[in-house]
Fold this sequence. Notes:
Elements: H1 14-22, E1 37-47, E2 61-67, E3 71-83, E4 86-95, E5 99-105, E6 108-129, E7 134-148, E8 150-151, E9 157-159, E10 162-176, E11 181-190, E12 201-211, H2 217-225, E13 233-241, H3 247-254, E14 263-279, E15 284-297, E16 311-327, E17 331-345, E18 349-350, E19 353-354, E20 359-371, E21 377-387, E22 398-409
Parallel strand pairs: 14-22
Antiparallel strand pairs: 1-3, 1-12, 2-5, 3-4, 4-6, 5-6, 6-7, 7-10, 8-9, 10-11, 11-12, 13-14, 13-22, 14-15, 15-16, 16-17, 17-20, 18-19, 20-21, 21-22
Amino acid sequence: MRLSAYKIGLFFFLFINSISTFAQDDRAQLPLALRNAYFGVNIGSINYDFGAAQFQAPAGYMLNNVVVNHAAVRLVLYGYEFNKYLSAQLTYMRPVSWVFYYYDRGLEKNVRSSVWMNVGGLTLRPELPISKRFSLNGEVGLGIVTRHGFNAVDGTPIISGVTYPSVLLGGGVNYHINDNWRLVLGATYSPENTSVNQPATTFISAGFNYKLSPVSEQKLKNAAETGYINPKQWLQIGYSSNVLGYGVNNTLEKAVLFWGGDAEVFQGLTLSYHRNIFHTAKVFALDWGVSASGWQTKGVGSGLSNPNKQSFFTLSVFPVLRFNFLHTQPLDAYFYYSVAGPTYISKIIIDGNDTGQHFTFQDNMGVGMFFGENRNWNAEIKIGHYSNGNIFSQNAAVKIPLSLNFGYAF
């Protein structure tokens, strides 16, 4: 998945949330780890001096041009406000489009290759109020810089792939609209690393942070009075098959609503456990789950008896954002999106594609329903995806076709 190296712990804190949730019955209230938590989106310009200095090509290659695309986004995946003076946050920053190198390779003219770059961060964010609405902030902590380069025809790295720790520094100005919303103007900086020929990275941006607050007593009362059943936990079994092809995957990938994959799964079986940790009165629910899956790939080539099919398995922990869009007497229907589920994948090279390492992330997207008088039964249809989100220099993705899932809630 090209977008999400940010996945490195995006929702790992849900485990902490669930510990507190087990001890309470009222899932209409925010878990402790989400109270005073905040999330953010920042859009701006990323600047790094990629050029001839990074182009270490063998004889017979000639550099023509380098295009650096500056539009970029930085996400605050999880921030926690200890008090009005200090916060900590997990972030992910990447360009909207990669750096492109254009070069001649022997008789081939103007060949194009890309360099992927992203920066993850785990930082402290001290803040100084200067008025009722305005505050200044600094930022200091750990940055993880990941670069995916490209090779010559003989396999010699022209720009090598690297992942390394760095210092991440920054600061900004904040305008507090109210207790929940604030606008942010900021800048972050990661210094150059001469040992791997990596230029310094600067990001200047504007965006917002949204802080979560405990649910009011009135909203808790309203949620209790709706009469809707919100299942607490459920077991599920699912079967995936490419019998209908990958049309849904490909369509949603083109619409930039989901991710595709280099290796394609032919069929698979999944067992999973889900637990709800928060829900509003009618629409929104937050769940977490664990799953074990066995997969068989389509293989290189075609045909049902393709001898090149591979088998592998995955073990995942995952968050789920669930949106209940229909409440009727026989059933409650929902749309859900699951992103950044930390996963162990048993094989690294799948159908000739290098997925990076045994650590990766699981993503799912689908629709489902709870039905029956007490909403004990569950059915879903979904698609899936595995990739490491560019936290490693190799990141071939795995595409999971349509899956049909059945569950029992208790």
